[in-house]
Design brief:
Elements lengths: L16 H8 L3 H9 L1 E3 L2 E3 L7 E2 L5 E2 L2 H15 L4 H15 L10 H16 L2 H7 L2 H11 L3 E3 L5 E5 L7 E3 L9 E2 L4 E2 H11 L2 H8 L3 H19 L1
Helix pairs in contact: 1-2, 3-7, 4-5, 5-6, 8-9, 8-10, 9-10
Length: 232
């Protein structure tokens, strides 16, 4: 795994496991197991993939693509697939799709079904085949886990509308180091939400930042949702 100096983090996004957990709604401990590997009863399980950012002894940080991969991996595991099967699918999909993090690519929406079927048929796993023999079942998993994503020309995820486009909060790894921003103003949502606390009202915060009141309201609603997830 390659160590990335801070100057090389531009365009990648940077998130702690706790921050990632609130955004993708997967517990931090599970994220760490998937990206660090773990042992159960003396048996070692490799990471599902290597995270985009390696902090060495300082621990794990995630990039934007890691967030997108986690969403898909989580959806498959929730449907009953083991993490080991998901790891096999990632390895096979890398060869087919040609991307180090293939689960979140637009091409995986179509090729992913055949990837999982190939794994299931090789190992005669009826449960795996049953899940993906239906195009509807596969589409349901993919649309839920890859919803609200804008893709680049290379088929890789470029932006994520965290709560849906109507809420106007977007994560773009090329802007503000991947922090959630209010799309109309490009101001980080957390900055606008903190401004409300400092100024005492949404209207005062809007005047202070010279942005529409509606933009501040969207940022506050997003901050409230993240607080709710943190407390859950």
């Amino acid at each position: 795994m390659t160590y990335r100096e801070p100057d090389n983090l531009i365009g990648i996004g940077l998130y702690t496991p706790a921050e990632a957990s609130r955004l993708v709604q997967v517990p931090p401990a599970k994220i760490l197991r998937w990206l660090r590997g773990h042992e159960i009863s003396g048996k070692h399980y490799d990471p599902l993939w290597e995270p985009q950012v390696n902090l060495g002894d300082q621990g794990i940080a995630l990039g934007f693509r890691d967030l997108m991969e986690i969403r898909v991996a989580s959806a498959f595991i929730e449907r009953g697939l083991s993490a080991q099967k998901v790891r096999q699918a990632i390895q096979l999909a890398r060869e087919i799709i040609g991307d180090e993090r293939p689960l979140s690519t637009s091409r995986f929406r179509t090729d992913g079904r055949s990837v999982f079927l190939q794994i299931g048929e090789e190992e005669c796993e009826t449960k795996l085949i049953d899940l993906f023999k239906s195009q509807y079942a596969f589409r349901e998993v993919m649309e839920r886990s890859l919803s609200n994503i804008d893709y680049g020309n290379d088929g890789a995820p470029a932006r994520w509308w965290v709560l849906g486009k109507s809420k106007s909060i977007v994560i773009d790894p090329t802007r503000s180091f991947g922090r959630p921003i209010e799309a109309e103003t490009s101001v980080p949502a957390e900055v606008l939400a903190e401004a409300v606390k400092a100024e005492g009202s949404i209207e005062a915060a809007a005047r202070g930042w010279d942005v529409p009141v509606r933009a501040v309201k969207r940022a506050v609603a997003f901050a409230d949702e993240m607080d709710r997830r943190k407390a859950a």
